[in-house]
Amino acid sequence: MKITSAEFIISAVRPDQYPTDALPEIALAGRSNVGKSSLINRMIMRKNLARTSSQPGKTQQLNYYRINEQVYFVDFPGYGYARVSKTEREAWGRMIERYLKERNELKLVLLVIDIRHEPSKDDCLMYDWLKHFEIPTCIVVTKADKIPKSRWDKHIKMVKETLGADPRDAVIRFSSETGEGRDQLWEHILQTISG
Fold it and tell me: pLDDT digits over 57-96, tens only?
């Protein structure tokens, strides 16, 4: 995928703030610090369009990035971060739930999981929830560069088993450092939005 344009559009908290140009949307869900912003930056080959932060819990809205005037990446707030108040977490939950249930432009959710760790309880809940609402999901197992290649298969198997992954869901190994999986992920996204 050749990137000709990529821009940050809006941080939205309510449906009336969502873009109205009806482009397909790809949402990214995952724990705080799992590397969603780095994944976006690697996908669009830009160093820091999506702001990465060493401080988890930074994203508190739905951040919209428009790519090549043909698709949006929608970055969700990371979940499972303790320093955020319970009320704030519940507000995020409601905002995300409403988006997932009501947004017609949503074509795919990338559930981003760190290959080094077993999926958390929140990861499993999110996955179950996506399955319950029959939202197309792609599991992106990131930070592949952080473990030896010889352990990749074992760790991916652990991720699938812990999530109880549907065998029909694509699982893509990814590294923001090396670009591993970038082409494969673009291929999957473009296939999904043209389907």
Answer: 445 689 999 999 999 999 988 876 656 677 777 777 788 8
